[in-house]
Every structure is written in structure tokens, then in C-alpha cells.
Please model this.
Amino acid sequence: MTHHSPPRTVWSNGIQICFDTFGDESAEPLLLVMGLGAQMIQWDDEFCAQLAARGFWVIRYDNRDVGKSTHLSGGKRLGLAEFLGHQLFHNPVDAVYTLRDMADDLVGLMAAIGIDSAHVVGVSMGGMIAQEAALAYPERIRSLTSVMSTTGEPGLPGPTRAAQALLLKAPPKTREEFVRHFVHNWQVMRVGSFPEDDARDLRLAERTFDRGLNPAGVGRQLRAILAAESRKERLASLRVPTLVLHGAVDPLIRLAAGQATAAAIPGATLVVIEGMGHAIPLRLWTKVLDAIAAHAHAQAP
Model:
């Protein structure tokens, strides 16, 4: 049975970061970085255990402003007019902190738990954070896997109308509203029929709510994404071995963004997963886990 450590909190980059681990500490360390507004538990426990069983010490953590990590303050909620102004006319967006700050959180966590370097897997916003970490600290990143993410360059296709609506929807006020919102959100993001995942969403929604919500923090994270400049030119100098995974039917960060990411990074490998939207459904776990593990193990010294 895979060892699963209890959650604990350490200081990183001036804030507190909550994390837990799966597997043997003597194995190759691999950090999982979650996306916008998502707590670390959205890296499913069994997914993490299966990844650990492939030969890794798996570390997942709450980004700043979600879950049990530090909740910050400041900024205002992003409105439709400001969002559309950015999407259509590239108007600047103010942010309380940056994706680079969040990359510093990641590397600070590594230092706090005694890891000199690690494989890093980031999904969506987590992929952006992982890219920033690889650019700023290439010696600390053994391999990079960017999942359903983007370079942030202008001109890439935006989200579908349904996915965009989820970004701007007012936060739910009660536990029941949150559960309904959560379940609907992932039905939209998965694109298609995944009853086995739908059945698990209710429990995950309740667990997420019980760990604590921070709607204002999600807004600050979204502003950090929108305020970021394109990483395309900087990624051209990246020499960290990179795998890009992207769903063929992603409604939020479209396939073209994954293709652009792979094209921007010298030597990157692109794997397009048919039938996958902006989530990793159960039936595709093995394909995703095998791809991550093969890429990371190929970089072993």
C-alpha cells in the first residue's frame, strides 16, 4: 500500500504552503501543481498513489490563496467588461501577485522540504506556474510536464462560451450551491459523458468545501493569469526536458495553446489525448500517468 503522509504546512516565499506526499521519500521527487482555484485534493488520492507506484515521491500542495495555504488580500473581483477588454483588446489587468511569485512558492516549498531538484507536473494555471519555475530555476527542474496549459501569447483561441461563463460566475454562497456549481463545472470541463467521474464529484465537492473556500483568492489567481505577459519568447531558451499533454476537446484552454507551448520549447514532445477536455477523467488516467512517468524516468541521471 502506498504511504500517504498527513498534510503539513511549511514557510515558503514568505507565506505558508500546505502539502502532503505519496510514496517513498527515497524515490525521485515529483511535484504536482494545480490549476485556477483548485485545491491540491483535485489531484485525486488514487491518481497520486498510482503515480507514486511508478517510482516517484509525489508531492501535491495548495497554491497560495486556496485550501490550507495562506489566503492573501486585496484586489477586486474581475467583471465581464474588464475580462472582455483583456480578451478582445489585450487591455492590461492589475494583479496583487504574479505567476512568477507562485513559481517562487513552488521552489520555496522544495527548499523547505529539502529537495534540490524535482520533476514538476502542472495542470492549467499550474502548467503556467511550472513553466515560470523552469524558466527562473532550470537547475531545480529535472523535467517539466505542462498539461492543458498555454504560453499566454496573444491570438490563441479563447475559451468556449460555456467555459468562459464558469470563470465569471458569481461564487456560490452555501454548501449546497457550491456542490451544485462544482458538479456542473466539471461536467462542462470534461466535455462528454463520464458517469464514473460524475459519481465522484459530489464527494470531492463536499471535501473541497469542508477544507475551506476563498472566492476572492480565486479572483486574485485569475488576475495573475491575465496579467502575465506571453512566455513564448522566453520559452525558446528553455532547455528543461518538456512534455506537453493536451486534450483534443479542451473547452477552456484550447488545443492550439498546447500546440503553441510545444512549438515554443525546443525539443518538447506534444501528446494530444483524444476525448479529453479540461480535466483528466478516470478512463484516461493510465494514458496520462504512463506518459508522465515515461517522460520523467527518461531524464534520470
Q: What stands out?
A: The chain has a mean pLDDT of 95. The chain has one domain: 8-298. The domain at 8-298 is CATH 3.40.50.1820 (Rossmann fold). The first strand starts at residue 8 and ends at 12.
